[in-house]
TrEMBL record:
Coiled coil: none annotated. It comes from Sphaerobacter thermophilus (strain ATCC 49802 / DSM 20745 / KCCM 41009 / NCIMB 13125 / S 6022). Keywords: Transferase. Residues 412-451 are annotated as: Disordered. One of its GO terms (molecular function) is hexosyltransferase activity. It comes from the Bacteria. Residues 18-201 form the Glycosyltransferase subfamily 4-like N-terminal domain. InterPro entries: Glyco_trans_4-like_N, Glycosyltransferase_grp1. This is Glycosyl transferase group 1. Residues 429-441 have a biased composition (Basic and acidic residues).
């Protein structure tokens, strides 16, 4: 198969969708399929495009052997509904002419439901080429935006709901990431044979890899070597209830052997950093996002890992934090301050302790329990790692996704005749790509070659 990933989020950005898409694309290529990515310039979550990409309208490069075409967008930070919507729409439009720069006509298109405008782009390209698209439903739109209070305008809600219905009804196959989303889509009339639940999963081998020699994580050395480190690694956003972590740090202020580590970025981070400074919380450290190749070093420094979500009916019923899979794959005990499927997965795997969301006292007690019982902490970590390897490893999830793609292709009508490949690219040969490259530039965490 020739598989095209159409995505707003892609490395060198750091985040769960970026990692999932790159690793799935790489796995599919290793299975013998031709894979390409049509994306935009990295800008998430700050809205700032790095120097190596800035000022370009169109760009072709290669990451880990995968051809990537990037096209223009209006870059905006991940806050403010209007500016983010304009950013999403700008790439959805620029992707249409940029698709002519792809190396071949795909057999199937893969697109995430967020941002929604890109689903319309996938439908247009699919109609143009006569090929199906597979929709990854990690969010319920517009319900998620309404639940977070981001979308309030009744007209905008109706229009968004209509676009979401269009995207779902025209997709050849739909892949929900949680049981709650799967059940809701079934209630909305999506036939069960078109729904395929696939969890995010995680790459166990990544966390077993040796730490790159000579590379360090700035700021990590400031934490006492004998401290019991409790880490949160991920987006610092509204759903993650990280004020609870600050309140927990205050409760643990008289226990100097416990240190809280928050790694990542997001719209809430500047406020959280300022708030921790105002409260004089010396037992908490904030670090910038870490390249994926350094995740083994980061997780090995943690004695336990936090997964936190707000107290919310929507999060309880539909959300599953992908962080739990990385925590378990790294062999670290999870402390989950969340309800619903996020807690259910950890409890089922016997991989951590679960406490009510937004409860600093309960969170502090869970931290004390693991600090006092290192054998329990070690056992919970080992349980989680075994569970991921047996049930939700990235490779296992990629094989399940390959089956979904095959079903979409086999059920589709005969596609239109393929186009000639644009100059500078070679055609897919026996499912693989070979093509000359002009120069090589390093990018953090990925192998990247630029045209």
């Amino acid at each position: 198969m020739r598989v095209l990933f159409l995505t707003h989020f892609f490395p060198p950005e750091i985040g769960p969708p970026q990692t999932r898409i790159l690793e799935t694309a790489r796995d599919l290529q290793q299975m013998g399929h031709a894979v390409a990515v049509l994306t935009t310039f990295p800008n998430y979550p700050s809205g700032e495009i790095p120097a190596g990409y800035r000022g370009r309208v169109l760009m072709r490069e290669e990451m880990e052997g995968i051809p990537v075409v990037r096209s223009w967008l209006y870059a905006a930070p991940n806050r403010g509904f209007l500016r983010r919507s304009l950013s999403h729409l700008s790439f959805a439009l620029s992707a249409l002419p940029a698709a002519t720069r792809l190396p071949w006509r795909p057999d199937v298109i893969v697109v995430d439901m967020h941002p929604l405008f890109l689903c319309v782009t996938a439908a247009i390209l699919g109609r143009w080429w006569g090929v199906p698209y597979v929709l990854n439903a990690g969010d319920l739109i517009p319900e998620q935006a309404v639940a977070y209070g981001v979308m309030r305008n009744p007209i905008a809600i109706r229009v968004t709901r209509a676009l979401a219905s269009f995207a779902l009804n025209h997709a050849a196959q739909v892949v929900p990431f949680t049981r709650g989303i799967e059940a809701t889509l079934r209630e909305r009339g999506i036939p069960p044979e078109r729904l395929h639940l696939i969890y995010y999963g995680a790459d166990v081998e990544l966390f077993q890899a040796p730490i790159p020699e000579g590379e360090t994580i700035p700021g990590l050395e400031s934490i006492a070597p004998d401290a019991f480190v409790v880490m949160y690694a991920g987006t610092h956003g509204l759903p993650h209830a990280l004020d609870t972590v600050l309140d927990t740090a205050e409760l643990l202020a008289d226990e100097p052997d416990v240190h809280l580590l928050l790694v990542g970025d997001g719209g809430e981070k500047p406020r959280l950093v300022a708030k921790a400074r105002e409260r004089g919380l010396a037992n908490i450290t904030f670090l910038d996002p870490v390249p994926r190749r350094l995740l083994p070093a980061l997780y090995r420094r943690a004695d336990a890992c936090l997964v936190t979500l707000r107290r919310s009916d929507w999060l309880r019923d539909f959300a599953l934090s992908s962080k739990v899979f990385d925590v378990m794959a790294a062999g670290r005990p999870a402390i989950v301050a969340a309800e619903g499927e996020t807690a259910d997965v950890v409890e089922h795997a016997c991989a951590g302790l679960c406490v009510p969301p937004e409860d600093p006292a309960a969170l502090a007690e869970a931290i004390r329990a693991l600090r006092a019982r290192p054998a329990l902490a070690r056992q919970l970590g080992e349980n989680g790692q075994r569970y991921v390897a047996a049930h939700v490893s990235r490779q296992r999830q990629s094989r399940a996704f390959e089956t979904v793609l095959r079903q979409a292709v086999e059920a589709a009508p005969e596609p239109h005749a393929g186009r000639a490949a644009p100059s500078g690219w070679a055609r897919a040969d026996a499912g693989r790509l070979t093509e000359p490259l002009e120069r090589t530039e390093p990018t953090a965490g990925v192998s990247r070659r630029v045209h």
